[in-house]
Amino acid sequence: MKEKVRMADLAKRLGVSTVSVSNALAGRKGVSDELRQKVLALAHETGYTLPRGRRLQTEGVLGIVVAEHFFTENTFYSYLYQCLSLSCSQSGYSPVLSLVTAEEERKQRLPAIWQEKKPDGLIFMGEISRALILRATEKGTPCLLLDFYDTDLRLPCVLSDNLTGGYVLTRHLLQSGRREIGFVGSMTATTSIMDRYLGYCRALLTAGLLPQAHWRLEDRDALGRLIPLSLPDNLPRAFVCSCDEVASRLVQALQEQGLRVPEDVAVAGYDDYRASQLCIPPLTSYHVEPEIMARQAVTVMEQLITGQEPPLFYTVVPGYPVFRRSTDVPS
C-alpha cells in the first residue's frame, strides 16, 4: 500500500519548514505567492490531503475551550487567554473563545465552535471533563491541554511547575521559623492544585513534619466554583494557597476575625498575577509565565495540526518565587 504523504514530506521536498507549508496550504500570511504555488502544486502532485476537517486557502482557526467558572472567578485565566490570543494571531490563526457551562460539561455537549467554525485545533484550558475532551478527539480534531493534564489521555499538555511552586513556597515559610503550615485548596478539583499540594507535602515531609488534615481547607465545590472559606478554631502559623485569588480571600477572612497578616498568620499564593499585588498586605507568590505557556501551547498545536509528533508531551514551564510582605517575619 502506498505510504501516506505527510506535511513534513512536502516541507522536506521543498527545503522549507513545516510551518511554512502549513501557512501556504491554509492561505495564511508569512509565505510568498511563489512558495504558495509550489506547495499547492506539490500537494496536488503527491496526492497530499489535509487531515479531516481542515480547509485549504482559508484562515486558520484555533478554538480555546474553558469552563465558564474559571473566567468569572479567576482573573489569571482571563490574562492567559489574552496571551493565547496574541500567540495565535502571531502564528496566523484566529482564536475563538468558547466558554463551557456546568450543564454543557455534564451533558458532554461539544463546544459550539466545533459546529460553527470547524477549528483546526482545540486548546482546553484550566480543567474540563474528560468525557467532553474525548468527544472532541473522536472527531479527529487535534487537542491540547493547557494548565492541566490527564494521565489517562494521550494528549500533549503545557503546565506551570506546580510541584516546585508548592514546595518552594512551603520551604520559604519553614525557613522563616513557621512549622505549623496549612494548605488552602480543594486538591481533587484540578491537577494543578493537586500538584501544588503535593509540593507542599514534600516540603513538610523533608522537614520531618506531617501534613495536618484539619489545616487543609476546601476552596471550591464539586463543580469547581469557589466557596466561602471555613477557618478552623486552631489556626496554624501560615497557609499556602492554591492561587492568589484564594489567598486574597483568606487574608480578608483572617482580618475579619481580627488577625494580622503576617504577624499572626502568614499567607502565600500562586500565579503572581494582579491579586497578589492588590492585596493588603501584598502577597508572596509563585510567579508563572503565562506568555511562555501560551507560546508553547500554540507551537505544540501547530506541530499537531501539521502532522508532527511533539518532542515532549508534557511541557513544564518553570517559574520562580516572589517574596512580599504577607510572609515577612515579625520583628
Q: Would you state the CATH class of the largest domain?
A: Alpha Beta
**What is the level-2 CATH architecture name of the largest domain?**
3-Layer(aba) Sandwich
Please report the number of helical segments: 13
* Low-confidence runs: none
Give the averaged pLDDT, no decimals: 87
What form results from the Cα inertia axes?
elongated
- Quickly give the structural class: alpha/beta
Number of strands: 12
Radius of gyration: 23 Å
Subunit arrangement of the protein: single chain
Largest sheet: 6 strands, parallel
Which range best describes the helical content: under 10%, 10-25%, 25-40%, 40-55%, 55-70% or over 70%? Answer: 40-55%
Q: Summarize the helix and strand pattern as letters.
A: HHHEHHEHHEHEEHEHEEHEHEHEE
- CATH fold type of the largest domain: Rossmann fold
* Total count of domains: 3
Biggest sheet: strand arrangement: 2-1-3-4-5-11
The CATH superfamily of the largest domain is identified as: Response regulator
- The termini sit apart by 77 Å
Q: Report the sheet-strand fraction.
A: 15-25%
Could you describe the 3D structure shown?
By secondary structure, the protein is α/β, with parallel strands linked by helices. The chain has 3 domains: 1-58, 434 Repressor (Amino-terminal Domain) (Orthogonal Bundle); 60-160 and 290-319, Response regulator (Rossmann fold), CATH 3.40.50.2300; 162-288 and 321-327, 3-Layer(aba) Sandwich (Rossmann fold), CATH 3.40.50. 41% of the residues lie in helices and 16% in strands. The protein contains 13 helices and 12 strands.
